[in-house]
């Protein structure tokens, strides 16, 4: 009778996975990778938060239409300037406190998503305003929608600066 | 022979790892805190927190008291600064396994200001204004007789009224402002109105609610004035403005659900620019059917639907 068991001939063949040395090396590598990735998470969230927002074309289809004006209408230029001023302030707040670990990733990600949504709402409202050109009633409504979109972004940025500066 | 060696070696490695973890956890254990101080009457209490779970409760004494456990890496500092009593968790917490767990008592007659990075907070029992903000974390405010301002970027914000005025906002978290137990599992119970149809609960005064992408639920028998804004979040409103009052709901892309009961009286104006209006219209939607003064309920969406919903009134549980 032939013995087909390869281990029965002598020393059993061990997988490298059973070798404790390899296991220790693997565990150390996994630990190092985990520490590296955890330290990078906050940095990435902060960097993402500083990137310019790209529009959400699915929920705000007008934001991705061609030839939509990016400049505000004359009636809303003051409001637009206020938004730009507070947005610059937010960037300074974020830049000054980045890599301190104070700002939670979840909050930074939420802020980033919120900026995308508010900017998309502004662009969508710009599209509606351009479309309503020539119809006074429709234009008045679109202008009100645009005003509100700016106000939402302004309120968001003001809250973010206040909240993040207060948390430091 | 070799198998025994491997088994022993594995056991040794496992025990070493466990010992190391145990040692590390001892180094990163929470620190107990139990401190108090007297404060000047009517001084502002300013609390600054990093993370963890914190209850802040107003009490009738002119003193503050903090008890519980601080996260590793944090220390507790209290100091009077003119008319402000400052309570502060200093340092950055290390690790997530042992967050701070604190109970803070402060005078209920003091205005309260709280700023937190990633703490979940429960704030209750205050006679004066409360201003609470956390960057990431849930926030619950209840039993406050002053004005409430609450903010969270990422987390659920709940205000249980009635309160004289509420200004609340989230970026992505849900926002719930209601009178307690009026709505349970989407069913409104009869205690919201008395037999003659008048509201049982005291009205909310001024309410301003904002979210970017969270869901707003505002549920109150009556409100004097409310402004509710969402950019791409859904809004559910079950309320009626008081006589001469006004409720404005404005949503860019998101659904607005307008709940109504037979007792509610409002003059509705709804406009869905690129959406549809559907559902069962309120019985009192036309001004002609109403006697006495009524308030206005004005709803506008840009790319969202508006849905009327008759709310089932059940006996109180």
Provide the descriptors you would attach to this structure in a database record.
heterodimer; A: 168 residues; mainly alpha; 4 helices; B: 317 residues; 3-stranded mixed beta sheet; 1 helix; 26 strands
Plain-language structure description:
The complex is a heterodimer of chains A (168) and B (317). With 168 residues, chain A is mainly alpha-helical. Chain A has one domain (6-167). Chain A has 4 helices and no strands. The longest helix of chain A is centred in the C-terminal third of the chain and has 32 residues, at 136-167. Chain A is elongated and about 85 Å long. The mean pLDDT of chain A is 83. With 317 residues, chain B is mainly β. Chain B has a domain at 156-317. Helix content of chain B is 8%, strand content 54%. Chain B contains 1 helix and 26 strands. Chain B has one helix at residues 2-27; strands at residues 31-38, 44-59, 63-70, 75-81, 84-90, 101-107, 112-126, 130-136, 139-144, 148-154, 157-160, 165-170, 175-178, 183-184, 187-189, 204-211, 216-219, 223-230, 235-238, 241-251, 256-260, 266-272, 277-279, 295-301, 306-310, 313-314. In chain B, the strands form 2 sheets. Chain B has a 23-stranded mixed sheet that branches. A 3-stranded mixed sheet of chain B has the order 14-15-26, with no helix packed on it. In chain B, strand 4 and strand 5 form a beta hairpin. The A-B interface holds A 11-12, 14, 18-20, 23-24, 27, 56, 59-61, 100-104, 106-107, 109-111, 113-114, 117-118, 121, 124-125, 128, 141, 145, 148-149, 152, 155-156, 159-160, 162-164, 166-167 and B 2-3, 6, 9-10, 12-13, 17, 48, 50-51, 92, 115-118, 133-136, 151, 153-154, 169, 171-173, 210, 212-213, 229, 231-232, 250, 252-253, 273, 302-303.
Write a compact overview of the structure shown:
Chain A is an all-alpha fold and 168 residues long. Chain A contains four helices and no strands.
Q: How much of the residues of chain B is beta strand, in percent? A: over 45%
Largest sheet of chain B: 23 strands, mixed
Cα shape of chain A: elongated
Number of strands of chain B: 26
Structural class of chain B: mainly beta
Helix content of chain B: under 10%
Number of helices of chain B: 1
pLDDT < 50 stretches of chain A: none
Mean pLDDT of chain A: 83
Instruction: Give the low-pLDDT segments of chain B.
Output: 190-196, 286-291
The fraction of residues in strands of chain A falls at under 5%
Envelope shape of chain B: globular
The value of Rg of chain B in angstroms is 25 Å
Specify which chain pair forms the largest interface: A-B, 45 and 39 residues
Using only CA atoms, what is the Rg of chain A? 28 Å
């Amino acid at each position: 009778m032939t013995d087909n068991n390869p281990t029965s001939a002598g020393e059993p063949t061990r997988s490298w996975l059973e070798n404790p040395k390899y296991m220790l090396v693997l565990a150390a590598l996994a630990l190092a990778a985990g520490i590296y990735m955890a330290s990078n998470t906050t940095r990435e969230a902060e960097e993402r938060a500083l990137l310019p927002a790209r529009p959400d074309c699915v929920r705000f289809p007008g934001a991705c239409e061609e030839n939509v004006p990016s400049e505000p209408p004359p009636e809303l230029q003051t409001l637009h300037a206020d938004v730009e001023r507070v947005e610059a302030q937010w960037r300074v707040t974020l830049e000054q406190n980045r890599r301190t670990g104070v700002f939670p990733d979840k909050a930074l990600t939420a802020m980033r998503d919120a900026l995308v949504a508010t900017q998309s709402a502004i662009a969508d409202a710009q599209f509606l305003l351009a479309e309503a050109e020539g119809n006074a009633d429709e234009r008045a409504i679109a202008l009100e929608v645009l005003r509100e979109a700016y106000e939402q972004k302004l309120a968001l940025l003001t809250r973010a600066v206040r909240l993040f500066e207060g948390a430091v | 022979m070799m198998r025994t060696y491997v088994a022993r070696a594995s056991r040794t490695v496992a025990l070493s790892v466990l010992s190391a973890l145990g040692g590390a956890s001892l180094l990163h254990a929470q620190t107990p805190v139990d401190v108090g101080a007297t404060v000047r009457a009517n001084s502002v209490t300013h609390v600054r927190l990093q993370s963890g779970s914190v209850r802040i409760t107003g009490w009738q004494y002119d003193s503050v008291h903090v008890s519980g456990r601080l996260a590793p890496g944090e220390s507790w500092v209290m100091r009077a600064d003119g008319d402000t009593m400052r309570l502060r968790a200093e340092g950055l917490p290390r690790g997530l396994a042992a967050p701070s767990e604190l109970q803070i008592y402060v005078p209920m007659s003091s205005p309260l200001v709280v700023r937190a990075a990633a703490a979940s907070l429960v704030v209750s029992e205050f006679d004066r204004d409360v201003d609470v903000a956390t960057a990431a974390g849930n926030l619950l405010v209840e039993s406050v007789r002053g004005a409430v301002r609450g903010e969270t970027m990422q987390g659920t914000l709940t205000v249980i009224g009635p309160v004289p005025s509420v200004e609340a906002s989230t970026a992505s978290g849900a926002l719930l402002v209601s009178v307690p137990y009026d709505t349970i599992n989407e069913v409104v119970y009869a205690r919201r109105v008395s037999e003659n149809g008048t509201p049982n609960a005291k009205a909310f005064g001024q309410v301003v609610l904002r979210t970017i992408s969270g869901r707003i639920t505002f549920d109150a028998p009556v409100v004097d004035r409310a402004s509710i804004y969402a950019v791409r979040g859904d809004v559910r409103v079950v309320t009626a403005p008081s006589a001469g009052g006004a409720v404005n709901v404005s949503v860019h892309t998101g659904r607005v659900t307008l709940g109504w009961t037979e007792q509610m009286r409002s003059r509705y104006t709804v406009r869905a620019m690129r959406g549809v209006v559907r559902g069962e219209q309120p019985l009192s939607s036309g001004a002609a059917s109403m006697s006495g003064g009524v308030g206005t309920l004005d709803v506008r969406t840009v790319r969202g639907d508006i849905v009327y919903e008759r709310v089932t009134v059940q006996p109180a549980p």
